[in-house]
């Protein structure tokens, strides 16, 4: 009798274990991103247990095409060492049964152990040079108080956007409760990220375990695990980089050096006449701002902040000079839980195009801060208005960027507090051919100083 109950117990335990494991094969946290090649789409999702990585997709609601990918194990750094498998499948345009331009594709992901719901995405037009994409951009959105999310869900599923860009600080925080907060956040944004590419920039709230959750959960192009990369959309060249390398030096000075060199090389290539003609707009994406007028003690309130001024006292790897020298048009930041639009600015001096049209042929980059999507830390207030700040708001909300052509860019700030009202609507206009900013040539001569090169060489020698 004892043997009977013992064997029955083993079978019952086995059934429960298998049942529990089967439930964890169900795909979740589905999101899209742009891949290594300009027209490629990466589909990423998660399962609790290892299984096949398959996407079934097709036009007209018929899921007749199949593409397999790969998965990798991710283990959280917390005490439970919670694990999950991150799946990735890339769809290309040049393969047999490839994606067709300007087509609505339906898809679902999973394996024979479980499939997701059916989602869809639109492919870009055949002539990418004439593509005029619409993009939603924001930062600092958490699980709690994600106030902008319902409106973004409705607008994304209505087909209003070609991509979404999240400029740092996710979930608050993805590593909390052994990664459960990160899982919930990824499920939350699935309602937008499964329909359009969800491009990301790392923020300070991703720092745990050397940014492991951010590096593992997303699938941005390039070899640097999402920390720095660039991509193109129509006439725009986007550059995403880590401001956190300037602040988390305990993770190694080497990556700060590598990123600066990568940024300069990417900007040089983007500024090659052939490339700048095709993609005249250069937009940078970084989490912590160089400038802000918020009522706090954040680094952007200081004149000699690390991003703008460099690592003092030698002013190493200063980004304001670099971005000015290579004629960056627009610099988008977050971190401050507010919206702020600056006048064209360099070294705390305003360089408007003209008094009546400050953003027509401006003589310096334009900065905006878009960190008010909504999180449990609420919104930030401001100090008295400085002369270099053009507009600011503490309303919850997000920005829209509409690229009309090679010369005209429209930007709007949406207030969720005011039921979707556009509270800032302005145009950035750059006539062709592009003209260098006035001090760029002098700056290039000044930056030929050997001190920064010496630091680079020292780091390389010590590797």
TrEMBL record:
Its EC number is 3.1.3.2. Gene3D superfamilies: 3.60.21.10, Purple acid phosphatase-like, N-terminal (2.60.40.380). The keyword Hydrolase applies. Residues 135-339 form the Calcineurin-like phosphoesterase domain. It comes from the Eukaryota. Residues 364-424 form the Purple acid phosphatase C-terminal domain. It catalyses: a phosphate monoester + H2O = an alcohol + phosphate. Residues 1-21 form the signal peptide. CDD domains: MPP_PAPs. Keywords: Glycoprotein, Hydrolase, Signal. Residues 27-123 form the Purple acid phosphatase N-terminal domain. The keyword Signal applies. Pfam families: Metallophos, Metallophos_C, Pur_ac_phosph_N. GO terms for molecular function: acid phosphatase activity; metal ion binding. Belongs to the metallophosphoesterase superfamily. Purple acid phosphatase family. PANTHER family: ACID PHOSPHATASE TYPE 7, PURPLE ACID PHOSPHATASE. This is Purple acid phosphatase.
